[in-house]
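Ticket #4471: structure output looks truncated?

Reporter: J.K.
Steps to reproduce: submitted the chain below (258 residues) through the standard prediction queue, then opened the result file.
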Amino acid sequence: MSRFAGRTAVVTGAASGIGEACARLLAAEGAAVVVGDLDGDGAARVAQEIEAAGGRALAIATDVGDSAQVERMLTVADERLGGIDVLVNNAGVLRLDKIVDVSDEAWEFTLRTNLTSVFYCSRGAARRMIAQGRGGRIVSISSIHAVLSEPDGGPYTAAKGGIEAFSRTLAAELAPHGVTVNCVRPGATWTALSRPLYTAPVLAALKQRIPLGEIGEPEQIAQAVAHFASDASRYSTGTTLDVDGGYIMDGSLPAASY
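Returned output as attached by the reporter:
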């Protein structure tokens, strides 16, 4: 497949998990991919493996919560890869604590990494997409916890809800320029961020709660991202796609019935 032949994609948080899966899939389908991550060594590994498989990739160590570093990443992508056609906002962190115990530092760090980064990256990419005059795709990774509570995850849920609200406004503003803006809302997914949380009791509860009875894989989320990044989604903007095994839609009572 070559859905993205001749296009350049920037993926943040791409050294592992969902971001890595997105970078690999976009590259496999023809895109030149910027692998952006705070973990420079991890980003370099992913880029090297993409190139070894015949793709084109460039690793750029970037703190997406720093506007200057974001601008540097986007400028390098623009100058070395010929523009920016797709942006995937994926970088994220999770710190768990009761809201009454959340420190100022934890709140600011989570919002900076998960939400402010989406503003910095989207603003910079949008400016370049407008100037290029050929449209573009911005896809941000949200979470089912943008709409479902996550006890002990107040800063995280605030950031994910903010991503979706921000994306709707951005979609309206960029529509005249042919730039679409959408979100993918993963449910429980195997990543480096979530794996330590999935203890045996948690896994048992999740498999009972999720209608499809399993934890998602990063590659399944990447497929949804690739759809929004492709021409197949050119008439979709300002929307969010759940990829959660049915978690959100299911209102049944586990192990009980009315």
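Triage note (M.O.): checked the attachment and the full token line is present. The chain is about 45% helix and 15% strand.
Status: closed, working as intended.
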